[in-house]
Design goal:
CATH architecture of the largest domain: Orthogonal Bundle
Radius of gyration: 20 Å
Helix content: 40-55%
CATH topology of the largest domain: Fumarate Reductase Iron-sulfur Protein, Chain B, domain 2
Structural class: mainly alpha
Number of domains: 2
CATH class of the largest domain: Mainly Alpha
Largest sheet: none
Number of strands: 0
Number of helices: 10
Bound molecules: iron/sulfur cluster
Length: 178
């Protein structure tokens, strides 16, 4: 990820952060929280979706009763783009309505229900890429809010402390073979 690469580069040489116009300056935010963070591809996807429902029909999360509907995600994005986009044009780029795509339109429960199986993207007649959009929003939750599911947060802590996803020290690794 380019944003993470830049962040690590800045950590290696903090003076770069104060060079004006530096293309390596830190990103304002990791991942997608609201429409300002959405990629142009996701934006065009939301406008081109015909709402045919093929993506939701093959989604294993939806089929097994989870809250997730891949079609709804792009309908939500289109709605939010229209709502906030026009308000920004009218009130300037710093406009805020104290709402965001995540939480006010798309819940964490929907985002974490995705298995990233890619069935939705494979089925979509318009080549819309749902998993990349979902992963961008998950990335915001994990990297900006540390709001991942409990199980994932435990794995992240273990990797940070032990260099492995388990709660055991990496120094004890050879014990596993006994
Ligand atoms: S399959 Fe594609 S076009 Fe149809 S509802 Fe899903 S995202 Fe929209
Ligand atoms: S990638 Fe996620 S949203 Fe798409 S079909 Fe699989 S579980 Fe459903």
């Amino acid at each position: 990820m380019e944003s993470v690469y830049k962040e690590v580069k800045l950590m290696m040489d903090p003076n770069q952060a104060f060079v004006s116009g530096n293309e390596n300056s830190a990103p304002s935010r990791f991942g997608t929280k609201d429409i300002e963070d959405v990629s142009w591809k996701n934006f065009i996807d939301s406008l081109s979706c015909t709402q045919c429902g093929r993506c939701t029909a093959v989604c294993p999360a939806n089929i097994t009763g989870k809250k997730l509907s891949p079609r709804k995600l792009f309908v939500d994005l289109r709605y939010r783009m229209t709502e906030k986009g026009f308000a920004i044009l009218k009130n300037g780029k710093d406009y805020s309505d104290n709402k965001s795509l995540i939480n006010d339109y798309i819940s964490k429960e929907e985002l974490w229900a995705c298995t990233t199986c890619n069935a939705c993207a494979t089925e979509c007649p318009l080549n819309i890429n749902h998993p990349s959009f979902i992963l961008d929003m998950r990335r915001y939750l994990v990297m900006e809010e540390a709001a991942g599911p409990t199980g994932l947060n435990a794995i992240f802590s273990n990797i940070e402390n032990n260099g492995a996803p388990w709660q055991y020290s990496s120094d004890d690794r050879l014990n596993w073979t006994l």
